């Protein structure tokens, strides 16, 4: 079940009405019912890239993901940024805001765990959330970054890791991150820069800056090999 601090932050991802939560969630505005999938409320209300959806739904993928994740930062940055340094930058940027925190595209819960007990992980993949709950117990919900199931200004910090490259609508995800942040709130991001897409969004630096600045963020972008690290704040 969801922790008590999280329940007041929830909202319908379709109409943003308040949610009544018990064995399922019901929007008090539009009446939409959101079921549970095992222990997780299913608040999904957007789309995913078809190939990535199929891959992420394949149970062996989350089982192997951690082995890749702890190495990927160093490999993709050409040794300029390590996984340990990535997590240190995440905590150093977001934790001073006090929380609560949201990890969009949480995967196996790496960022959620790093941000502490008052953080919720959101992901559209049920197999990934099952793996996250086993390895890093905490608050998790099924949902999409392009239609966040939270009220306006609910969080002081939002983290979006490599999920940036997987969004079907990156502009909607940026606007939603801005919407759920409180005044002065901060966004941490990590994504792959330009290259062979293989069905992913692989933007140029200028495109990333325009996207985030266009929805009201002040952005510092660092390039580490093929990776972009984003430190953004609500203006």
Describe this structure in a few short sentences:
The chain is of the alpha/beta class. The protein contains 7 helices and 12 strands.
Helix and strand run: EEEEEHHHEHEHEEHEHEE
Strand content: 25-35%
Q: Report the count of strand segments.
A: 12
CATH topology value: Rossmann fold
- Computed over alpha carbons, the radius of gyration is 17 Å
For the report, how would you describe the main beta sheet?
A: 7 strands, mixed
Stretches where pLDDT falls below 50 for ≥5 residues? Answer: none
If you average the pLDDT, what whole number results? 95
- Order of neighbouring strands in the sheet with most strands: 8-7-6-9-10-12-11
Structural class: alpha/beta
Principal-axis shape:
globular
CATH superfamily: Vaccinia Virus protein VP39
Helix content: 25-40%
Total domain modules: 1
């Amino acid at each position: 079940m969801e922790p008590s601090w999280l329940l007041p932050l929830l909202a319908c991802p379709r109409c943003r009405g308040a949610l009544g939560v018990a064995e399922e969630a019901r929007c008090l505005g539009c009446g939409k019912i959101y079921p549970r999938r095992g222990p997780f409320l299913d608040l999904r209300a957007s789309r995913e890239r078809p190939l990535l959806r199929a891959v992420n739904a394949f149970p062996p993928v989350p089982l192997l993901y951690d082995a890749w994740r702890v190495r990927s930062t160093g490999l993709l940055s050409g040794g300029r940024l390590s996984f340990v340094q990535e997590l240190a930058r995440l905590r150093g940027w977001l934790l001073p805001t006090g929380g609560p925190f949201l990890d969009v595209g949480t995967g196996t819960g790496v960022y959620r765990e790093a941000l502490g007990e008052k953080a919720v992980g959101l992901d559209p993949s049920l197999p990934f959330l099952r793996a996250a709950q086993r390895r890093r117990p905490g608050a998790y919900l099924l949902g999409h970054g392009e239609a966040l199931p939270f009220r306006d200004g609910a969080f002081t910090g939002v983290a979006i890791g490599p999920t940036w490259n997987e969004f079907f609508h990156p502009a909607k995800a940026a606007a939603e991150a801005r919407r759920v942040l409180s005044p002065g709130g901060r966004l941490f991001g990590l994504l792959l820069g330009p290259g062979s897409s293989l069905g992913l969004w692989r933007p140029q630096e200028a495109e990333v800056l325009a996207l985030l600045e266009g929805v009201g963020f002040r952005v510092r972008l660092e390039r580490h090999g093929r990776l972009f690290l984003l430190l953004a704040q609500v203006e």
